[in-house]
Specification:
mainly alpha, 78% helix, 0% strand
């Protein structure tokens, strides 16, 4: 039975609408980060309160993402996408007009709920409207939106905040959302609907698991992890409901998450690789920004400029991978990308406080190329063996795995960096004493009786200890890339289409 695809002109309109929708949602995952201090001063909020601007959006997105697959099956993909674009755009307008923290947090929740379905459902749409031989180029364009958005977000957010006000980081979504809505309304066709039963219990178990896990990861560092009763309760709930989710999935006759997804070898292993890939894309940026600004004195704009080449490398690699994926075994492309990413992280583990901007730029370009080389062939492998009927749900869980990887990577590596910084500081300061002849030779002007000198020396030790902690985190992430690499070759090779 042959499949009918849209004519080229209509396919291009749908592609532009899908990619712009994806960029809009992906931008908002990071664009607000640099504007938090401005929002805090405007709304007179405490530091622990203003972070809910980020946390509320992330939790709403994570909870709603797996539901988007069922909604598309039940009500039609086009209808869900158009409602999502409309909801996200209107919520962005409301965010930009908010005058209190409570209003902004509520609008961010609505924004997260609206945008959650756009990333997986636009991916499923691009796979459906293109024949198999065009899946590579289509996923390259899609990947540029999902991955470049978070890379460009902090730079764009800083520029908008400095040039105008923080309100414009949300208002900028209006023309993008309207354009996507017009294109998709005109060109996209509705998909078949399936009157499947909604598994309320399964969705409730999964939602509590995701929400409590996200709260544990987001607030753990602020509350000193398991020294806090809140974190203990949230972590216990996350583990308990994760267990209930798995048991329910295996025993229910019609579960919210279909076990058939994980019986597909490519999907199961691909989701794990995607989780680690999410750590690479998001966690490195989360470490780089404070490292450059707090230790090396970079401004927000300078940080954005020196990390921007990472996005250029990603874009170039995705375009290249889109062309190569039909001619080279995608498993080798994914392995090559992860290997390059691991090498770049090893190079980052040799950063120093005296390095120049050129070092950051060329390593970032190299790392972006490696990370970009992973996404397109990994997506091709993951969906090449998956039943098309499971594409909506598969896309949702694939996107969710990347979100969870980002959350785990950011939270764990930031916590590890803080802890290692304190350990290294204590070890370094042991040798700073008057009876140490080596220290005396290197610092002949040392004056332990002068408070200003002692404070200056301690400040320098703190900087060096923190830098070492960042380097250890980069090294650990590089090792993790190599550890998961063998999973790639446990996946079945995708059929080639020339």
């Amino acid at each position: 039975m042959s499949t009918t695809y849209p004519e080229p002109a209509k396919r291009r309109l749908i592609t532009v609408g899908c990619v712009t929708s994806t960029i809009m949602v992906a931008l908002d995952s990071t664009i607000a980060n640099v504007a938090l201090p401005h929002m805090q001063s405007t709304m007179l909020a405490a530091p622990e309160q203003i972070v809910w601007v980020l946390t509320s959006y992330i939790i709403a997105t994570a909870v709603m993402t797996p539901l988007s697959g069922w909604l598309a099956q039940r009500y039609g993909r086009k209808r869900v996408i158009l409602l999502s674009v409309t909801g996200f755009t209107l919520a962005s307008l409301a965010c930009g007009l908010s005058v209190t923290l409570e209003q902004l947090v509520v609008c961010r929740i609505i924004q997260g709920l609206g945008g959650a379905g756009l990333v997986p459902l636009t991916q499923a749409t691009l796979l459906d409207i293109n024949p198999p031989e065009r899946h590579g180029p289509a996923m390259a364009l899609y990947g540029m939106g999902t991955i470049l958005g978070p890379v460009v977000g902090p730079t764009l957010g800083g520029w908008l905040t400095d040039t105008f006000t923080w309100h414009w980081i949300f208002l900028i979504n209006l023309p993008i959302g309207i354009m996507a809505l017009v294109l998709l309304s005109a060109a996209m066709s509705e998909t078949e609907r399936n009157d499947s039963r909604f598994d309320v219990t399964g969705f409730a178990f999964l939602s509590v698991t995701i929400a409590t896990l996200q709260l544990t990861l987001d607030r753990g560092q602020q509350l000193d992890w398991f020294d806090s009763w809140e974190i203990r309760i949230e972590a216990t709930l996350a583990v308990t409901f994760a267990y209930l989710t798995v048991v329910h999935m295996l025993l229910s006759p019609d579960p919210f998450i279909k076990p058939a997804l994980f019986k597909d070898r490519n999907f199961a292993f691909g989701a794990i690789v995607s989780l680690v890939h999410g750590m690479l894309i998001f966690a490195v940026l989360a470490l780089m920004a404070p490292m450059l600004q707090n230790l090396m004195g970079y401004t927000a704009m300078q940080t954005g400029l020196v990390t921007a080449p990472r996005g250029i490398g990603t874009m170039f690699a995705m375009l290249l991978a889109g062309r190569l994926v039909n001619h080279i075994d995608p498993r080798w492309l994914v392995a090559t990308g992860m290997g390059l990413a691991a090498i770049s992280l090893n190079l980052m583990a040799h950063f120093s406080l005296t390095m120049g901007q050129s070092t950051i730029i060329y390593i970032g370009l190299f790392q972006g190329f490696g990370g970009g080389l992973v996404f397109v062939p990994l997506t091709t492998l993951l969906f090449s063996t998956l039943d098309p009927k499971l594409r909506n749900e598969g896309s949702a869980l694939f996107a969710l795995s990347r979100l969870i990887g980002a959350a785990i990577g950011i939270s764990y590596l930031q916590s590890l960096t803080v802890r290692n910084s304190a350990i290294v500081h204590s070890r370094l300061i042991e040798n700073v004493r008057p009876d140490n002849p080596v220290f005396g030779m290197r610092h002949p002007d040392a004056d332990f009786g002068l408070p200003a000198w002692v404070a200056g020396m301690d400040g320098q030790i703190v900087r060096e200890a923190t830098m070492v902690a960042y380097l250890d985190s980069y090294w650990l992430l590089g090792v993790l890339m190599l550890v998961v690499m063998p999973l790639i070759f446990l996946m079945k090779p995708a059929a080639r289409h020339r």
